[in-house]
Amino acid sequence: MSLFGAISVSSSGMAAQRIRAELITENLANADTTRTPDGGPYRRKDAVFSASPIGNSFAGTLAEFTAGGSQGVNVSSISVDQSDPERRYLPGHPDADADGYVAFPKISPSEEMVDLMSASRGYEANVAAISTVKDMIGRSLDLFK
After folding, report:
1. Where are the alpha helices (DSSP H) in 30-77?
2. What's the rounded Cα separation, in Å, for the pair 6 and 126?
């Protein structure tokens, strides 16, 4: 893998972790949302990652077909939690049903914060990898002086 290929892999990882962090913050912001435009409570969202080939040059395309190419990461889809919502007894709530129960999203703030820390650390790891490659390129150029 070339040094620029390593930068491409890390930048794809940074982009995927950014999308994951955005979804986690959306989940946290809507943890108590009982009514959405679609009807019902907010549904938790999560990013699904998959490997994707890096590079759109001839060499990158050739490497794809020979299975020796670098693999980056992308968000292939966003999964939406389809489980039954959590029901809480709040008879005075405007969204309460006839029995006095309100449907709330199944979102655990502590789990979301752990996921957010994980996404942040994944992003930071990719930044560190890019910084290391940048230093390697700089030192290589210094050798040619």
Report:
1. 58-65
2. 10
- Which of 96, 109, 84, 91 has the alpha carbon at shortest distance from 32? 109
CA–CA gap between residue 128 and residue 120 (Å, rounded):
12
Residue type (1 letter), 136: M
State the residue range of the domain holding 89: 3-143
Residues 8, 94: Cα–Cα separation, whole Å: 50
* Total number of domains in the chain: 1
Kindly report, residue by residue over 3-38, the tens digit of the pLDDT: 778 888 899 999 999 999 999 999 999 999 999 998
Token pair listed for 94? 């405007």
Bridge partners of 74, per DSSP, are 50
For the entire predicted model, the pTM comes to: 0.82
CA separation for the pair 50, 75 (Å, rounded): 6
Helix ranges (DSSP H) in the chain: 3-29, 58-65, 109-143
Question: Residues 3, 20, 46, 12: what is their CA dihedral angle, to the nearest 10 degrees?
Answer: -20
Q: Sign of the CA dihedral 7, 9, 15, 21?
A: negative
Distances (CA, A) of 108 to 4, 47, 104, 139: 40, 17, 11, 47
